[in-house]
């Protein structure tokens, strides 16, 4: 198990991270480490660290506020950025109508695709026209790890 308290922040560099990753990958490739075990350990560490990052963000902002917008600490450059505003399209009536139409069309195309997989054509109830069947978009298979 990695003891996070023994990892010195000043020793963390892109090169060190890359070397550590390559060492682990090599151990799996040459058979000295079990691929499934390493994968599960990496997933567990990732999940744990995502939680640490999320749960400590407010404290990090307090610490960062002491130094300003950009500074070097523990050998790394730390920068803060301002949030930004973007257009909220949902307050526009025309956008809402078009978005609702798009969702309805996607649902119709989804049904037509499912029916085509069963060898059945789908027709528009208003116009009587056949709904075209869209090509399939594949996803890659995945391995799901569920921890107790």
pLDDT averaged residue by residue: 92
Radius of gyration: 25 Å
Apparent shape: flat
Question: Main beta sheet: strand number and arrangement?
Answer: 2 strands, antiparallel
Order of helices and strands: HHEEH
Major β-sheet strand ordering:
1-2
Poorly predicted residue ranges: none
Query: What percentage of residues falls in helices of 4 or more residues?
Result: 40-55%
How much of the sequence lies in strands comes to 5-15%
Number of discrete helical segments = 3
Give the termini distance in whole angstroms. Answer: 18 Å
DSSP, total strands? 2
Class of secondary structure makeup: mainly alpha
Number of discrete domains: 2
């Amino acid at each position: 198990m990695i003891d996070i308290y023994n990892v010195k922040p000043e020793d963390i560099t892109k090169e060190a991270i890359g070397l550590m990753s390559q060492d682990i990958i090599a151990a799996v490739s040459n058979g000295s480490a079990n691929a499934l075990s390493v994968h599960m350990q990496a997933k567990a560490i990732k999940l744990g660290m995502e939680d640490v990052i999320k749960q400590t963000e407010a404290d990090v902002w307090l610490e960062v506020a002491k130094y300003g917008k950009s500074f070097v600490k523990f050998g790394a450059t730390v920068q803060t950025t301002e949030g930004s505003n973007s257009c909220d399209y949902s307050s526009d009536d025309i956008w809402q109508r078009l978005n609702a139409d798009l969702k309805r069309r996607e649902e119709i195309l989804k049904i037509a695709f499912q029916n085509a997989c069963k060898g059945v054509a789908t027709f528009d109830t208003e116009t009587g026209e056949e709904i075209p069947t869209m090509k399939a978009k594949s996803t890659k298979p995945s391995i799901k790890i569920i921890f107790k």
